[in-house]
Specification:
Blueprint lengths: L6 E5 L9 E7 L6 H15 L3 E7 L6 H11 L3 E6 L5 H10 L5 E4 L11 H9 L4 E9 L4 H17 L9 E8 H8 L8 H7 L4 E8 L11 H15 L2 H31 L6 H34 L6 E8 L19 E2 L1
Parallel strand pairs: 1-9, 2-3, 2-5, 3-4, 6-8, 8-10
Antiparallel strand pairs: 4-9, 5-7, 6-7
Helix pairs in contact: 5-8, 9-10
Length: 349
Amino acid sequence: MQNNTTNQTFDVGQSAATPIISLIIPVYNEIDVLPLLFERVRKVMQQVNLPYEMVMVDDGSKDASSQYLIEQAQNDECVKALILSRNFGKEAALSAGLEHACGEAIIVLDADLQNPPELIPDMLQKWRDGADIVAMKRRSRQGESRAKQLGSYFYYRIMNRITGPMSIPEDTGDFRLMSRRSLDSLNRLPERNRYMKGLFAWVGYPTHVMEYDVADRAAGQTKWNYFNLFGLAFEGITSFSIAPLRAMVILGLITALLGGIFGFWIVFKTLAFGNDLDGYPSIIAMITFLGGVQLLSIGVLGEYVGKTYFEAKQRPLFIIQDVVQKIVKKSSNTSATPTKGTPVNVTTD
């Protein structure tokens, strides 16, 4: 799904040991929080004491984020910087990072530190116990408005009602751990219209749900407004369900039924009581209502046609401008991969 990749690899020996843990972090205009992000992640990974990599994906940042990531990658063999050629959106940036992850356990987290890196050891323990996916469920959402919290609450429950057998863990975001085999299955999915929360759930595999408290943004400003969130929600619904099309069919049937009843009433009234030329406002209201239903139906149908149009183009999901990574001589002391237990069913803390 990618194209035109330019490698800037700083070679000081043979390739480093294959990491056991891959951290995927999309970045867009996050220069204010990046120093603190690296500090906290490195502190946690020192405690974990396993080979790891930080796959930092710059999604066309307009501030100094990309240059900062390049500097980190040049000086730290654990950092791999993917610089996209422009802003492709978070879903595409996340897909780029997942395609370049080399670890056995892959952890996705946001750059704004609302996903606390300090939870990584607990996530790894669930992975060792046999869970292929560790989904992180929001227990509290600091700094979010009541409207946003309610919107998220109802959205996940509506999604799970209309997507059939596939179930998205409620109140979860992109913050999660994936095993290598679940990531390999995810990377085989070819679609361009990607709603990652749905794709994470679609691949299945034994899943454990952990609850956590969402922290306040450490620095900078959020890049998501209500319009963006609504667009992402609609993208998710239309990517995994044809329920909106069926809803338009039902609405059309109801409208036709009401129109037939109204027409029958007009005929009956005229025959029984004569025609007094009343009803002009009701006719205008009916025309307006029917026009709105038709435009809404065409719009929903157009959304699905548009998805087919973009899929047919077969354009790459993203284009990587540069890959920056420092390569070091392989160490003679390698750490053993943690033993995984027997797969488990979906469980919740």
